Amino acid sequence: MDTTKAETRPRILVLGAGGHGKAVLDLLLAGGEWQPAGVVDATPRVASVLGIPVLGDEARLVPLRAAGIGAAHPAIGHNGHRTAAGARLLAAGFALPVLRHPSCVIGHGAALGDGSAIFARAVIGPEARLGRLVLVNTGAIVEHDCIVEDGAHIAPGAVLAGGVRVGTGALVGAGAVIRPGVTIGAGSIIGAGAAVLTDVPAGVTVAGVPAQPLPERPPA
C-alpha cells in the first residue's frame, strides 16, 4: 500500500477485536476510503489485531471521539449485538460510514445504508438497496433490485437473485441461494448451503435443498 496515500485517508475506529473485527481490519488495510485508527473492545483480551493496537474498552469511546476520531464501525458479526453496538457509537458522537473493500463491485443506482460493510469480491447489483449496518460478506452476491433491511447479514458466498427482500436482522448463511422475488422475514435464519424457493416467515430457521423449516427445539 502507498503509505503516503494511507496517511491522507480519514481515520476510523473499529469496535470489536474478535474474528469479525479481524475481517473488518483486513478490509480497511486493503486500502480504500478509510484507515484504521485503533480497536476498542468490550472486554479486551489482546494487545493488537493485525498489527492495529487495541486501545482499551468502551470507556475509551468518548475520549477518542474528543481526540478527533469522527467515525467508527461496530465490527461484530452477531446481528443484534452489532445493531446495539452501532447505537452506542452513535450516542458517543461517531459517524457510521459505509465500508467497501477495493475488490467489491457496486452496481449503478445501488444504495448503501450507514454502517454497512461490503467485503472482498462481493457484488451489489444495480438499484439494490441495503439498510443500516448490513453485512455483505466475502464473495456474496446481492443482485439487482434486492432490498436488505437494517442489521441483516449476507454470509460468504450467498447469492440473492433479483428482487429478493431480506428482513431486519435476518441471516442468510454461507453459500445459500435465494430464488428471485423471495422474501425472507425479519430475524429469520437461512442455513448454510440452503436453496430457498419460497417466502420464509419472520423468525423462522430453514435449511436444506429445497429449504424447509427446522423443527423447534423443546425448552431446556
Q: Which key phrases capture this entry?
A:
2 domains, Rossmann fold, eight-stranded mixed sheet, six-stranded parallel sheet, UDP N-Acetylglucosamine Acyltransferase, domain 1, 220 residues, alpha/beta
Task: Describe this structure as you would to a colleague.
By secondary structure, the protein is of the alpha/beta class. It folds into two domains: 11-96, Rossmann fold (3-Layer(aba) Sandwich), CATH 3.40.50.20; 98-207, 3 Solenoid (UDP N-Acetylglucosamine Acyltransferase, domain 1). The protein is 16% helix and 28% strand. It contains four helices and 24 strands. The strands form four sheets. An eight-stranded mixed beta sheet has the order 6-9-12-15-18-21-23-24, with helices on one face. Strands 7-10-13-16-19-22 form a six-stranded parallel beta sheet, with no helix packed on it. The chain has a five-stranded mixed beta sheet with strand order 3-4-2-1-5. Strand 1, helix 2 (19-29) and strand 2 (35-40) form a beta-alpha-beta unit. It is globular and about 50 Å long. The mean pLDDT is 95. Residues 11-83 form the PglD N-terminal domain. InterPro entries: AcTrfase_PglD-like (IPR020019), Hexapep (IPR001451), Hexapep_transf_CS (IPR018357), PglD_N (IPR041561), Trans_hexapeptide_repeat (IPR050179), Trimer_LpxA-like_sf (IPR011004). The record marks 145 as: Increases basicity of active site His.
